Amino acid sequence: MKKDQLLSRRTLLTGVAALGAAGAGGALAAGLGHGPSRPPAPLPAPGPPQRSPLKPSAYRLQPLTGYGAPRAAPGRPPVRSEPILRMTGRGRTMMLTFDDGPHPEYTPLILDTLAKHEVRATFFVCGEMADYNRDLLTRMADEGHVVGNHTWSHPLLTKLSRRRIRSEMERTSEVVERAYGEAPRWFRAPYGAWNRAAFQIGAELGMEPLAWTVDTLDWTTPGTGTIVDRVEEGAAPGVVVLSHDAGGDRSQSVRALRRYLPELLDSGYHLTVPRRRLI
């Protein structure tokens, strides 16, 4: 079985495969092997407490979902009326995405697991967190991961003025560009709450809106096994999985990734990152 190979940022920039979208429905669960459960590897003992600019549960709400397929996007990002929910492509291809980080404790553990299995993922970062942890954005770039824009402070965009929405997006893009090496090409609205202003401003900043197909709801800390089951039961070609690497205690998310990632790979899935035609 071929696994996704780690690429440098320079190699990633040459990608020309487009990410599109089919309808939100029709994602049939793939047949994953469910053999005897392996006990999760213990997390390393945490180091000294590190300052985080955000309170753990200050912005955690029930995400809003239920969008259809986007229109075609020739040449440059269009102003969409719906976010992209799925990816196109042949075979058993999926995407793993992580929101709200980077976090100094949990994000490195997630990156270590991805590196162990030679898999790349997409991280939608909050500018306020990224500004405190720029070294992790640099590592993401070096290891071939994609970094997207998740606004500066994780607000509900539908309650903000256009000026505030632009500020939230622009500040985050600036931090990402300085630490990651290029401006983000993808953005995700906090809570999955999109409006026309968000789509318009995102397109003006050169970004496509990417949502998700499978929500692990890991922010509710439902238990490692439950997170694993949600990923494996929802696995199907084109699926985009939503998890979190910050915003609270993400030890369950780390342990779950260590379990379901090798299961997906052994079942023939190819874990990749979004790409669109470079302008």
Automatic annotation (TrEMBL):
Pfam families attached to this UniProt entry: Polysacc_deac_1 (PF01522)
UniProt keyword annotations, A-Z: Hydrolase, Metal-binding, Signal
Ranges for region Disordered: 27-83
Signal peptide start-end: 1-29
This enzyme's EC code(s): 3.-.-.-
SUPFAM superfamilies in the record: Glycoside hydrolase/deacetylase
PROSITE patterns in the record: NODB, TAT
NodB homology domain location: 92-272
Biased composition annotated in UniProt, kind: Pro residues: 37-51
Molecular function as annotated in GO: hydrolase activity
NCBIfam families assigned to the protein according to its UniProt record, in alphabetical order: TAT_signal_seq
The protein's name: Polysaccharide deacetylase family protein
